[in-house]
Amino acid sequence: MSIYDIPLSTSRGDNTNLEPYRGKVMLIVNTASKCGFAPQFKGLQKLHENYAGEGLAVLGFPSNQFANQEPLEGEGLAEHCQINHGVTFPLYAKIDVKGRTAHPLYRHLTKAAPGFLGLKGIKWNFTKFLVDRNGKVVKRFSPTDTPEKIEEQIRRLLND
């Protein structure tokens, strides 16, 4: 199964997958609106605004697995992020990103791009995965890697 075939749910609860992003560079991020890294929403939004026309898709996957920092659900969560952080890039339904209940998307991402010392688990909110236009996971970034810090690598993939 390719990354494009993994079943997902939108923030409205509709069934979907990543097929609409085939041929695009994807930046996949596990988000949490109450996290100390939530200011990164603004940088992610800026990447979305600056590079969507060139083929970048910023995709947010809310998770409540780290200190219960995502108490919101569905459309309320998307609305909160739009009002408070200016987010217009897609936010999907809340999922688990680690452990036995990890969503298949995150099992795929962490297997393809293990973290520090080869660990597969997600350390915290705002871990980022960069996926090329062919659906290959090319890089994993820690929560402390800001969107601005990874912009050059995104530009390189967009120009390949």
Structure write-up:
Pfam families: GSHPx. The structure is a single chain. By secondary structure, the protein is α+β, with helices and mostly antiparallel strands. It has a single domain (3-159), classed as Glutaredoxin, CATH 3.40.30.10. 29% of the residues lie in helices and 17% in strands. It has helices spanning 40-51, 74-85, 104-112, 147-159, and strands at residues 8-9, 15-16, 25-31, 56-62, 128-131, 137-141. The longest helix has 13 residues, at 147-159.
List the helices and strands and how they pair.
Blueprint: E1 8-9, E2 15-16, E3 25-31, H1 40-51, E4 56-62, H2 74-85, H3 104-112, E5 128-131, E6 137-141, H4 147-159
Parallel strand pairs: 3-4
Antiparallel strand pairs: 1-2, 3-5, 5-6
Helix pairs in contact: 1-4
- CATH-derived topology: Glutaredoxin
Oligomeric category = single chain
Give a short account of the largest sheet: 4 strands, mixed
How large is the count of helical segments?
4
Strand order of the largest sheet: 4-3-5-6
What is the second-level CATH architecture?
Answer: 3-Layer(aba) Sandwich
Helix content: 25-40%
Protein name: Glutathione peroxidase
Pfam families: GSHPx
Family: Belongs to the glutathione peroxidase family.
GO molecular function, one term: peroxidase activity
